[in-house]
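Reading is simple: the token line describes the chain's fold. The lines below illustrate.

. . .
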Amino acid sequence: MNALRNKVQLIGHLGNDPEIKTFDGGKKLANFTLATNESYKNDKGEKVEETQWHRLIAWGKTADIIEKFVTKGKEIAIEGKLTHRSYDDKNGEKRYVTEVVVTEVLLLGK
């Protein structure tokens, strides 16, 4: 059951082109957002579509793949783990971030 702990799988479309940062030594970081859509019928029988936005990051070879093949609007499937972190912004206020650290990416669509 350890393989099921903190595991996230999503299929969606990229909201923007990934932002790629290259650090000393050549290690890469990809930051991007993914939109997932869900639809259901409300009490009146009307179709309602709901979009959720997810912050994602990827490191190393996964970031390389994202940099080369993934662009805004592209449909992808990802697998990773959910992480939480905090930081102080430029005004000294504490900010909290929840993001998915991507370990696997699968290119879908055309």
